Amino acid sequence: MKADIHPDYREVVFHDVTSDFKFLTRSTMAGGTKDTVKWEDGNEYPLVKIEISSASHPFYTGKHKIVDTSGRIDKFQRRYAR
């Protein structure tokens, strides 16, 4: 294997902004974020904000919830309106 080609794999806190749910896991996504959060264990971890997780997804919650962040439904209806 080639050396120094793999991304840094470390602990990251993901924050679901829709349901205010946070969870700690390991990921390579922390390189692009400058936000940090102090976790329950007293350590500070990089924070990645997401819009949908298992706490807010209709499949896992059983609740139908429309999440349209960029107006995709309106854009589709305007484009294909007859």
Automatic annotation (TrEMBL):
Q: Which UniProt keywords apply?
A: Ribonucleoprotein, Ribosomal protein
A molecular function annotated in GO for this UniProt entry is:
structural constituent of ribosome
Q: Name one GO cellular component term.
A: ribosome
| Keyword presence, Hydrolase | no
Tell me which Gene Ontology terms the entry assigns under biological process. translation
- Per its UniProt record, what Pfam families does this chain match? Ribosomal_L31
User: What is said about its interaction partners and assembly?
Assistant: Part of the 50S ribosomal subunit.
Q: Which PANTHER family does the record associate with it? A: 50S RIBOSOMAL PROTEIN L31, CHLOROPLASTIC (PTHR33280), LARGE RIBOSOMAL SUBUNIT PROTEIN BL31A (PTHR33280:SF6)
Family according to the record: Belongs to the bacterial ribosomal protein bL31 family. Type A subfamily. Belongs to the bacterial ribosomal protein bL31 family. Type B subfamily.
Q: Which HAMAP family has this protein been placed in?
A: Ribosomal_bL31_2
Name used for this protein in its record: Large ribosomal subunit protein bL31B
Q: What is the lineage of its organism?
A: Bacteria, Pseudomonadati, Pseudomonadota, Gammaproteobacteria, Lysobacterales
Gene expressing this chain:
rpmE2
